[in-house]
Design a protein that fits this description.
CATH topology of the largest domain: Alpha-Beta Plaits
Distance between the termini: 27 Å
Radius of gyration: 17 Å
CATH class of the largest domain: Alpha Beta
Strand order of the largest sheet: 6-1-5-4-7
Strand content: 15-25%
Shape: globular
Order of helices and strands: EEEHHEEHEHE
Low-confidence stretches: 186-196
Structural class: alpha+beta
CATH architecture of the largest domain: 2-Layer Sandwich
Helix content: 25-40%
Oligomer: single chain
Mean pLDDT: 84
Number of strands: 7
CATH superfamily of the largest domain: Transposase IS200-like
């Protein structure tokens, strides 16, 4: 199989999708967060726009979120990552989407996805997460929380060739991946990369 040439102009739209596993990156986390947050019952503004500083290190918010966690945080394993990669590829094929690059870590997932036309990125995220959950539920014990994932995720539009190249590099250079892959690799090189 020869190399597949994929670039920014190969698709009508490209998205960098990221989501975390359940209870591993809570609102208030010192690493930064863009998830919805509440002070009492009123939702605060989300700082999730490109170029804005994300929220971080809000101990009281993190403790409040932690108190609502059911069961243990979900950390993925290598066998689960293998099932996920297969399901992501199947979902993309069925929906006529293209996974350009992907990385599955123990506590989060990154996918760069090229699409025709301009579907709502929320539908891409929902599709990948829901079919992935079904595949995991079929093969593994369902988490005590009843879910593998956090409620939402990040949907960043890849808006130019430089962003495309940087996003791809970012996904492929993740630290401690369970699996990492890229559509531009030959079949022999497309095998999951082992963590260093």
């Amino acid at each position: 199989m020869s190399n597949v040439v994929l670039n920014f102009d190969s698709f009508d739209r490209t998205w960098l999708l990221t989501w975390t596993t359940y209870a591993t990156w809570l609102p208030g986390d010192r690493r930064g967060f863009v998830s919805p947050k509440y002070d009492g019952t009123v939702a605060e503004k989300r700082n999730n726009q490109v170029g804005t500083i994300v929220d971080s290190d809000r101990f009281e918010l993190q403790q409040s979120a932690k108190a609502k966690v059911i069961g243990k945080p979900v950390l993925l394993t290598k066998p689960q990552a293998t099932v996920l990669k297969h399901q992501f590829e199947e979902t993309a094929h069925f929906r006529a989407w293209t996974i350009i690059s992907g990385a599955i870590m123990a506590n989060h997932v990154h996918l760069i996805v090229g699409v025709s036309n301009d579907p709502d990125p929320s539908s891409l995220l929902r599709g990948f997460k829901s079919y992935a959950s079904r595949a995991l539920n079929k093969e593994f014990t369902i988490p005590e929380s009843g879910t593998w994932w956090t409620e939402q995720g990040s949907k960043r539009k890849v808006y130019n060739a430089a962003f495309f190249a940087n996003a791809r590099r970012y996904v492929l250079e993740q630290h401690n991946p369970l699996l990492i892959w890229d559509a531009a690799k030959t079949q022999g090189a497309d095998a999951p990369r082992s963590p260093e």
